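Researcher: Next sequence.
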Amino acid sequence: MKEICTKCGSAIDSLDVFCSGCGRKIDRSHNIHTPKQSIDNEPLTIGKCLLGLLLLVIPVVNLICLLIWAFSSNSNTNVKNIARALLLAVVICTALLIFGAVQCFFELQTFFSTPPAQIEETIPSIPWKHLDIPFDVSYL
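Model: Next structure:
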């Protein structure tokens, strides 16, 4: 089992008498401590990953889970970082979607508010007009 020197932080084997990092004599009673793997950084099991992915597929539940995982104080660090990244991606995609919808709305509004006579005036500038293809704007 690996131990850590409290003076320099170097790894110490259980049979070492001196620290290989700082050269200090190891006093086993109070000079070393055993590193504890925090529950905060525990690797995720396959079951927990699959459960998380299943929750992310359900609408509305996914946003609630992401918010809880991203901002909870007792959440796993790995889960917290992934949740924050996914929330950022959701915000960016939503902003792009809103921007595209507004652009599409204004383009359609401009198209449908243009009178047919104005459309017929712009037709001669279109190269395929010389092919004698009938163009009917009466449905507008």
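Model: The radius of gyration is 33 Å. The mean pLDDT is 79.
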